[in-house]
Amino acid sequence: MIAITYLIPLSIVLAVITFAGFLWTVRTDQYADPEGDAARMLEAEDVPLSSQERDNLRG
């Protein structure tokens, strides 16, 4: 029975943190374009990298 006195407040704190995180993502427009990245990934043209771009990736 003593465990419930720890688990209930802990679950409330976790729920508040989760809800605050959700509100933060909504306010910072994280969901503004949910399909955009997926569409860009599927429609992107495969263009080979130039030698300069390859050298930049290698470091």
Short précis:
By secondary structure, this protein is mainly α. It has helices at residues 2-27, 36-43, 51-58.
Total strand segments: 0
Question: How many structural domains does the protein architecture include?
Answer: 1
Termini separation comes to 59 Å
**Parts with pLDDT < 50 across at least 5 consecutive residues:** none
Oligomeric state of this protein: single chain
Q: State the helical fraction.
A: over 70%
Order of helices and strands: HHH
Separate helix tally: 3
Which short descriptors sum up this protein?
single chain, 59 residues, mainly alpha, 3 helices
Can you walk through the features of this model?
This protein has helices at 2-27, 36-43, 51-58. With 59 residues, the protein is mainly alpha-helical. The protein has one domain (2-57). The longest helix is centred in the first third of the chain and has 26 residues, at 2-27. The radius of gyration is 23 Å and the shape is elongated.
